Amino acid sequence: xxxxxxxxxxxxxxxxxxxxxxxxxxxxxxxxxxxxxxxxxxxxxxxxxxxxxxxxxxxxxxxxxxxxxxxxxxxxxxxxxxxxxxxxxxxxxxxxxxxxxxxxxxxxxxxxxxxxxxxxxxxxxxxxxxxxxxxxxxxxxxxxxxxxxxxxxxxxxxxxxxxxxxxxxxxxxxxxxxxx
Amino acid sequence: xxxxxxxxxxxxxxxxxxxxxxxxxxxxxxxxxxxxxxxxxxxxxxxxxxxxxxxxxxxxxxxxxxxxxxxxxxxxxxxxxxxxxxxxxxxxxxxxxxxxxxxxxxxxxxxxxxxxxxxxxxxxxxxxxxxxxxxxxxxxxxxxxxxxxxxxxxxxxxxxxxxxxxxxxxxxxxxxxxxxx
Lengths: 180, 181
What we know:
The complex is a heterodimer.
Chain A: H1 2-9, H2 13-16, H3 21-36, H4 54-63, H5 68-78, H6 82-102, H7 106-124, H8 133-148, H9 156-162, H10 166-179
Helix pairs in contact in A: 3-6, 3-8, 4-5, 6-7, 7-8
Chain B: H1 7-47, H2 53-64, H3 77-85, H4 91-111, H5 115-133, H6 141-155, H7 165-172
């Protein structure tokens, strides 16, 4: 169904097929972005001496909440249990960063990254000085990495794939084609 | 070299082709998003008279002013010198140029027409912003993401799916040096 729609919307194969390597490089860049962003939320205190800390960002999200229930949730659930949620954020961003950097379980990493990006978009939409389009673009990138299989090139997903037996690869390929 | 007739090679080739097709569909969505972002920002800037000569000059002044003085605190002084000796010699003229070019780039990316040229223009534009903001308070990754997006749209012929370039290429073949569509 989706394959038919894609064929309808796109031109001939030679026009449609795009090189994977720019997406693979972008995947690595996104991985670096997440890992670099960890530097101001490192455990055990999740603060930075030079930049706004995680707790301060959460307080800004409460103060400038675009969705009242989101602000209420941060204020009444997240902030009172700050350490737990800070660890969750840290581990999620670390996992996404490593997944995208090394191209390992890329689709899972991209899916979690998409969720984190949308969370940032909703949370920071009205915070002064923030440019929400940056988070829209991040969400779009993770969506692209989610559907593109960008871990097959320059990534461990490609190594995993090549390590499978012929019967496994055939079934992977056919299921991949049918889901396309 | 893997024998292309083996099941592994066939499966691998099929998987890669699927990835590429999905990739180009994803890149088309990236291109459209980029177009929307540029047009929305452009429209907001017009409303704020940002491209007016004085405001335009004031923006670059703010970008390179130190954070203690309320500026962004950008650190690339060589780029400031280049700006001072080129664009800021005629901010009014460059403001008009930027108004027209930025709008055209956004529209071209949105509809996927002359995408390769438009994405190169977007790459130059975002590189300029990256160099302007570098080392300051602004979250520099914003511009890294936008540069990567523009470059990917260029490299992946982002207008050949869900875009006008598909029809242009069908009727005219590839553009000279592949730089237009």
